[in-house]
Amino acid sequence: MFRRLLPRTHPTLSLLRNAPKRSATTPSQSPPPQPQPQSRLARLNRRLPKFLHRHTNALASAPLTHITAFLLLHELTAIIPLFGLAATFHYTHWLPPWFAEGAWVLKGVEMFGRYFRRKGWIRGDEEVEAEREVKEARVVGWRDRAWGFGEGGTRVVVEFATAYAIVKMLIPVRILMSVWAAPWFAGWAVVPVGAWVRRVVGMGKRVGKKGGGD
Asked: For this UniProt entry, which segments traverse the membrane (predicted)?
């Protein structure tokens, strides 16, 4: 009689009660992403000769503004000499023969030839002609050739390739100059420009909030 009066436990409730309790697990936390300037510095280090690492490794513990200044200086010391040397070779009709016969020049011809052709600045046959001329110069020697190798696009490609080879050769000097000038360049350009950008962004956000409130 008493059994009939007692409420029966629903089978679902009994299953929930008897279910094994799972221990609370905290999701594994991935390490915070590396700041972009530091990751770029690490990639640059992997491409540099080992004897330069003692100069660039010191930047790993430097402020981010100094790292940013170093990376900017490293790019500027490549871009400015590249265009300056290419313009000098173009308007003086002169190339240093000991560079024009090197492997870096051939790499530069292939790189700039493809880029200029994609942009439509030279024709496909001028790209092929520039590669042929440089390969031939490596065999017979540039001193034994007259300057009159393909004018126009071919000439421009070889000029940029020779400037590229010189810039590559100056990497140790560029690294030392960039490391030495990084603190000064950070205070002169990186910090003021960063402060100006933050100020402009802050003004834009305040104006947006006022417009949204109206």
From this structure: 175-197
